């Protein structure tokens, strides 16, 4: 495999740094060059934030200094807000894609969240052969350009889903970037491995992939699994792993995990600012009900303060008896509405908070105990949307792992 940040990656990084220094010098001297700005749009931004303290005597227009890279694709943010669906790489590159496009053309839905780096760590399309990510790629989306042509022609807003710290492929290739038990890569009960959020090498790896998605034409990068493994608080002192720059820092293990996750999100937002894309993060719904999610390192406000969009996963089936609601799967309207109240109160604490765009449930949770679940269809999906809408949240995303969405739903109830 070529999963490495070896010679090619080092050379690429050195080149980016050299270009950035040159770009900063040009900006300070007031020299502009359109062709250069277009070619090196993404690179000039990367070092500027770290150099700005050295340029205190100058006042530079933000966009000039950043040499913003912009895709040639033309997409407008939906006027009524994003109302989208999740789309796997298989669906995006297969026959189901046309069916989903027709669905969006015949409803109020307007956006697709498309897997670019999926849950195991594979890319869903083939990059160029000289890419360091070529060997982790599957050819699910055989012709990305054709896919984007269809999206553009049908005014479907494209969002790239990039799974971050759940990454069995990278963990097995780079065990030193993961968590180990008895010298071997640790895996959870579903045989999934995670890479280490404390390590900046892991941050770079994922943001590099996100940059490629931005260059393809995606208008937003949505990071998922921005967290430590579930239940990590029960094994954090037993597993073998590095804490990187957080070693010996202030606070306990919980706060170090929270700081690492927050710092990754801030880093990703800064690095992607050169690509004129929005940044969003998926987060557990219950993270909004506690100060910190102690094991996984998620802080609702800490993450929200560093993104353009926050997408809480608030599927009724995933809750226990919260908000005084017993058997939440049976009460999608009440559950969604009560959650929205809590989230709104939290986001009001931020001076410039993100857009709220929750993930809602369009699947049947028949794995729950009998009597605790119900079939989900038109009524249940509409109930969730109505609960959000009544609390002033007008954007949402529908999740069904198989991409088989309910027909006949009124998405503006």
Automatic annotation (TrEMBL):
Alphabetical UniProt keywords: Hydrolase, Signal
Coiled-coil features, chain-numbered ranges: none
InterPro entries listed in its UniProt record: DUF4015, GH
GO terms for MF: hydrolase activity
The UniProt record lists the keyword Signal: yes
Pfam family, one: DUF4015
Signal sequence coordinates: 1-37
Domain DUF4015 as annotated: residue spans: 84-405
Protein name: Glycoside hydrolase
């Amino acid at each position: 495999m070529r999963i490495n940040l070896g010679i090619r990656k080092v050379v690429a990084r050195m080149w980016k740094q050299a270009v950035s220094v040159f770009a900063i010098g040009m900006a300070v001297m007031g020299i502009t060059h359109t062709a250069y700005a277009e070619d090196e749009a993404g690179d000039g931004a990367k070092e500027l934030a770290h150099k700005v303290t050295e340029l205190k005597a100058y006042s530079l227009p933000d966009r000039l200094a950043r040499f913003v890279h912009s895709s040639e694709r033309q997409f407008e943010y939906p006027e009524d807000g994003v109302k989208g669906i999740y789309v796997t790489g298989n669906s995006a590159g297969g026959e189901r894609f046309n069916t989903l496009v027709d669905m969006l053309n015949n409803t109020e839905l307007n956006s697709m969240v498309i897997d670019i780096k999926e849950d195991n760590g594979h890319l869903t399309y083939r990059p160029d052969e000289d890419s360091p990510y070529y060997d982790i790629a599957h050819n699910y989306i055989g012709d990305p350009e054709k896919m984007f042509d269809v999206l553009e022609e049908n005014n479907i807003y494209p969002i790239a889903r990039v799974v971050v710290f759940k990454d069995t492929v990278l963990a097995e290739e780079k065990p030193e970037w993961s968590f180990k038990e008895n010298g071997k890569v640790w895996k959870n009960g579903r045989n999934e491995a995670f890479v280490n959020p404390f390590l900046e090498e892991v941050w770079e790896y994922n943001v590099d992939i996100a940059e490629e998605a931005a260059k393809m034409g995606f208008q937003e990068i949505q990071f998922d699994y921005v967290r430590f493994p579930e239940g990590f608080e029960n094994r954090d002192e037993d597993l073998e792993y590095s804490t990187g720059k957080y070693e010996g820092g202030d606070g306990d293990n919980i706060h170090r995990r929270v700081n690492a996750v927050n710092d990754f999100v801030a880093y990703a937002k800064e690095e992607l600012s050169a690509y004129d894309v929005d940044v969003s993060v998926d987060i557990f719904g219950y993270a909004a009900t506690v100060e910190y999610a102690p094991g996984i390192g998620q802080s609702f406000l800490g993450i929200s303060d560093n993104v353009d969009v926050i997408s809480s996963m608030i599927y009724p089936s995933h809750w226990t008896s919260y908000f005084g609601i017993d058997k939440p799967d049976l009460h999608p309207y009440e559950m969604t509405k009560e959650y929205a109240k809590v989230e709104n109160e939290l986001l009001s604490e931020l001076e410039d908070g993100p857009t709220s765009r929750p993930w809602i449930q369009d699947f049947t949770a028949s794995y729950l105990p009998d009597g605790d679940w119900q079939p989900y269809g038109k009524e249940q999906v509409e109930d969730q949307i109505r609960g959000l809408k009544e609390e002033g949240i007008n954007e949402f995303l529908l999740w069904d792992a198989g991409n088989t969405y309910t027909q006949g739903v009124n998405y503006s109830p």
